[in-house]
Amino acid sequence: MKQELISVIVPVYNVEQYLRQCLESIINQTYRNLEIILVDDGSTDSSGAICDKYAQIDARIKVIHKDNGGLSSARNTGLNVCTSGGDLIAFVDSDDWLELDMFEVLYTNLKEKNVDIVCIGCYQCYMNKIVKVNFGKGKLYSGKNLISEICEDGYYNPAVWNKLFKKSIFDKIRFPENRYYEDAFLFFEILEKIHSVYISPETKYFYRQRKTSTMNKEFNDNILDNIAYRELFLENAHKRYKRLIPLMSCNCKMGYFFVLEILVKSKDIKRKIELAIELQQKMREGMKEVIKSGKVNFNRKIAYVSLAINFKLYQYLFELHKFIKKLSGKQNILYP
What we know:
Blueprint: E1 6-12, H1 19-27, E2 34-41, H2 47-57, E3 61-66, H3 71-82, E4 88-91, E5 97-98, H4 102-113, E6 117-125, E7 130-133, E8 139-142, H5 146-153, E9 163-166, H6 182-185, H7 187-191, E10 196-208, H8 225-240, H9 245-263, H10 269-292, H11 298-328
Parallel strand pairs: 1-2, 1-4, 2-3, 6-10
Antiparallel strand pairs: 4-9, 5-10, 6-7, 6-9, 8-10
Helix pairs in contact: 8-9, 9-10, 10-11
């Protein structure tokens, strides 16, 4: 079988500690027909020099040095280079690494299943443990209900780093810049351009969980993009995928909980109070359509009811918190 060219886009920014492991896992892939595009996004450590050194070792590597613009900007720079060349596109984050047969497995599945996208499982790698995450048991999605079925099954995550894409998907698609969760904002846009997806049961991508990840950062308004993309999902459901409204409404509530959890880290008391009130109101407004819906399967109903219980507990704790603060006469720093 003739090997088509896979363009592998690797955004690089201040990852000197991890970059060599990442690059070694790419250049030693059993699938050899690769174009490896390293986009040095204005690194201030030795990452850029490491990229240049590997380009001297392997002729398949192209290095682009640019001013810092963020992950989306780096990925878009790579897309602008590779979409005129490669047949297929893959993304790898520069602090992660791959099983050496990952691209071979992805490519074989893409050709044998005749699909537009192949998704593979990952290992979430923490400091003291590795957790295997499979996104499915081997399932092909196609036809007019492709998006609804993918969302309802929940095996396809929005991340681009564990997938192989046909090049044409990104002909007119670029990542939104100055956003967190940039992959998620493209979720519907990508799926609406394709005819089929295969979720592979195999696990080949090592996804490093670093202390500098979003969950461990000081709160800032960029975290609100976690809500923004979920609300975009709900908006798409209302416009074109009515059966997904309960699911996406539930998804929004999860985003509100997520942001509230990180919100407590904020040192801006006024902003903290404003957002807490706003998020509480959003949760109240949306829960009824989740609980009353009868258009979801049993497992989803269980998930919705569980979330509803959590929401109710949150409300009770909120009221208890206010009551205790009132009794103590102390300022309530989270809520007015």
